[in-house]
Amino acid sequence: MAPATAAASSPARDASAQLLSIGQVLARLTPEFPDLSPSKLRFLEERQLIAPQRTPSGYRKFSPADLERLRFILQLQRDHYLPLKVIRGHLDELDAGRVPQLPTGAGAPSIFPSERRLTREELLHEAGAAPVLLADAVSASLIAPAEHHGEDALTVLKALVELQRAGIEPRHLRGLRAAVERETALIQSALAPAARRGDAASRARTAELGREISGQLDVVRGTLVRHALARLDG
Length: 234
Prior knowledge:
Elements: H1 2-18, H2 22-29, H3 38-46, E1 53-54, E2 60-61, H4 64-80, H5 84-95, E3 118-119, H6 120-127, H7 131-139, E4 148-149, H8 151-165, H9 174-195, H10 200-233
Antiparallel strand pairs: 1-2, 3-4
């Protein structure tokens, strides 16, 4: 009976050997996601996006499937700037066996810096913009002055090219920049109580709360604009 018992326990041992500790997860993912930390992993678990196994001693253990799920979550945050609430809904759909489209907002420019850096000439060429338009955008504080620019600057300049065709120049958008600064101040004020705690877990929660608030403000702003346009059509 002993050989049969050993054979039966072999799959369990193999499965256990595949489980990763928090340190091993960080070693595999931090090269791709440098801001990942133990506190962020715990925060994602608190928000019920991941559910690692627990050892009898209470230590978290991650399966290969947990690792891929975590990578997917982090990619949606980094590349599409999606709040965790939206990501969790998308994961719930996948867990239910459905194949949903990426959530609303996917494909939007990330607020995080891209690895790609563009010279002024490359930026103008890819955006199809005239040098004067870039100069006007910098003057209106829509694009930061720099020797090299990231994907966000390219996205903004492409939008300005299209707006210019409709007769809207960068100088017309100075009020938009001021509105963004007021909105940022509003978010900072809302985050102040959580930010004062200062520990790593609180910083992770504060960053996510900032994304949630920003997303809700986008909803309100978009709705107001649509209603205003509807009144014009009427």
